Known about the structure:
Layout: E1 16-19, H1 23-34, E2 40-42, H2 62-67, E3 71-74, H3 79-87, H4 92-95, E4 101-104, H5 110-122, E5 126-133, E6 143-148, H6 151-161, E7 165-172, H7 176-204, H8 209-217, H9 226-233, H10 240-264, H11 269-274, H12 278-283
Helix pairs in contact: 3-5, 7-10, 8-9
Amino acid sequence: MTNAGDTSAPETSLRAGVVGLGMIGGGVAVSLARSGRIPTVYDVRPDIAASLDGVPDQVGTIAEVARESDVVFVAVVSADQAREVISGADGIAAGARPGLVVVLLSTVSVGAVRELAALCADSGIELLDAGVTGGNAAAKNGLTVMIGGPDKTVEHVRPVLEDFAKLVVHCGDLGTGMVTKLARNVVTYGTWAVVREGAAIAAAGGVSLDRLLSVLQQTEGGAAPLTMLQVHAAGIKVPQDYLERVEALAQKDLAAAQEFAGGVGIELPITNVVKPQMGDVYHGRLPEPRA
């Protein structure tokens, strides 16, 4: 295994592993395979790898992923799941040798990042936090990766990151990748809520959503709301199960942003207003904009 501090090794020598083969992790695995860096993979669903182009059958345990990898990407939903992946029986720590780098792709609180990093350090493992966006394009080398951690370690794993990302942004020390993701999510979720209100106002005043869309397309500040407004204008019905999943992610991510803000002594009045409203935003309990 290559040591994390050794940046002299050729790019192709780094072996990659992926734990969690959902939309993000599965897409990362596909992109890695397409790039020629065939990953060792594991998911709680034993047959899921068979549906991923170029990805080999999964191994028997997470510990085996760690034994066969120099860099392991953890793409689970929650901090509790990440904790179990790292320190549970047959987890990463059970199979890792010193020098392994774990890259956390899950969106969790900054406090959880530091806790998970400490768990890894106890086993001679280094953890980097990597917020990602563009999940739908993960299988097409389409992710933007916001990563936090020491310069040397980030540069060591960058070749693997670039095998699946369209852009890698090193945001600073440990935790800053997650801070950047949380900041981005506050903008995103807040925009969705505001678009819903703006569209409802336009519709109530007899203005078609197509006309509002045309105005926003030609004015500063209009780019961010366009996707949500296009959904409304086209009358697209989003599946209920998707809305439920996205609302749960919004609640988790905005709670993490609130926790971080509270820890550093800043106020988030808009986020504090928006978070309780996300269920209404997703499930149509706010005024329904009509073209």
